[in-house]
Amino acid sequence: MKNKIIFFWFLMISIMMALSSSFWFSLWMSLEINMMMFIPLMNSKNFLSSNSMLFYYIIQSLSSSLYFFSSIIFSIYSNNMMIFIMTISMLIKLGSAPFHMWFPQISEGLNFMSFFVLSSFQKIIPLHVTSLIMNNNNLIPFIILSSIMGSLGGLNQISFKKILAFSSIAHLSWILTLISLKQNFWTIYFLIYSIILMKITFFLNKNNCFSIIQINSMKMTYIFKLFLFSFFMSLGGIPPFLGFFIKLISIFLIFKMLPLILMFLIMSSLINVYFYMRSFFPLMLNTKTLTKTFLINVNNFSLFFFIFNFAGIILIFPMISFI
């Protein structure tokens, strides 16, 4: 446990190193440190985690090599092809479609805490690099593919890890769209997405709930299931939850410059909401699970995030006036 804390600390240092620099070599060094510090955190001492560690190392090493060599060539001979290759290397690290198949496969072999780090902290540096090197036209095909694959890929899944992995790919399309428009709002979108995902993974990990089949048989109080349902709805962008308002602001920003892409993004969100609701639909119909002591066993931490899911709107809603 102490070793994992040390590795996580160095992982955070690598992220701060990357965010404080724009030089390609220091960014590459940060990516390498970040990768090597995360691999020990993936270890759960079973075959699936070992397989995920090896697969993750191969994918990340390949993308880092692409970034390293394309950056060297670009520093000598500046051309658009090298910028495109650097962008591709970051999209591979992010798990963007069509380079996305490694992401759900690796996610299945991780525990929920490692999965949360993979879906949040591990994306900060590649997103930062993408915002520095990106070309507007380069990202559009990948945005459309990510929105399609992120929604359709989760339709036939019953594992929560794979559902959240494909959901992460769909949310990535929104973030990449904001980056392509040179909108700094992508940082707020990513932060709120990470907070919502953190609470979902916390609930699922605490109750050892791995699939939608288990959700109705788990020994959770009705209020805990309601909390979990509300966070999934927020992740899908259903009003009046916080996730809806970040998507609403994103729609206002995107509509001004790339209105056609909104068709793919909104349809992707609707499909995501469908397979979120499919997971909890039997739960909502089973009113017998409603206990008389409605708030029993709800700790302050859980209640705070449940309130934040609504009260956070007060913090983000004034941003609409600046759009």
TrEMBL record:
Lipid bilayer topology: Multi-pass membrane protein
Highest taxon in the source lineage: Eukaryota
NADH:quinone oxidoreductase/Mrp antiporter transmembrane domain ranges (all copies): 24-271
Substrates-to-products reaction catalysed: a ubiquinone + NADH + 5 H(+)(in) = a ubiquinol + NAD(+) + 4 H(+)(out)
GO biological process entries: mitochondrial electron transport, NADH to ubiquinone
Cellular component per GO, a single term: mitochondrial inner membrane
GO molecular function, one term: NADH dehydrogenase (ubiquinone) activity
UniProt KW keywords: Electron transport, Membrane, Mitochondrion, Mitochondrion inner membrane, NAD, Respiratory chain, Translocase, Transmembrane, Transmembrane helix, Transport, Ubiquinone
Transmembrane spans: 6-33, 54-77, 83-103, 139-156, 163-181, 187-205, 226-254, 260-277, 298-320
The enzyme's E.C. designation: 7.1.1.2
Record's subcellular location: Mitochondrion inner membrane
Principal EC category: translocase
Main location: mitochondrion
InterPro entries, A to Z: Complex_I_Subunit_2, NADH_UbQ_OxRdtase_chain2, ND/Mrp_TM
PANTHER family recorded: NADH-UBIQUINONE OXIDOREDUCTASE CHAIN 2
Function: Core subunit of the mitochondrial membrane respiratory chain NADH dehydrogenase (Complex I) that is believed to belong to the minimal assembly required for catalysis. Complex I functions in the transfer of electrons from NADH to the respiratory chain. The immediate electron acceptor for the enzyme is believed to be ubiquinone. Core subunit of the mitochondrial membrane respiratory chain NADH dehydrogenase (Complex I) which catalyzes electron transfer from NADH through the respiratory chain, using ubiquinone as an electron acceptor. Essential for the catalytic activity and assembly of complex I.
Family listed: Belongs to the complex I subunit 2 family.
Protein name in UniProt: NADH-ubiquinone oxidoreductase chain 2
Organism encoding this protein: Ixodes columnae
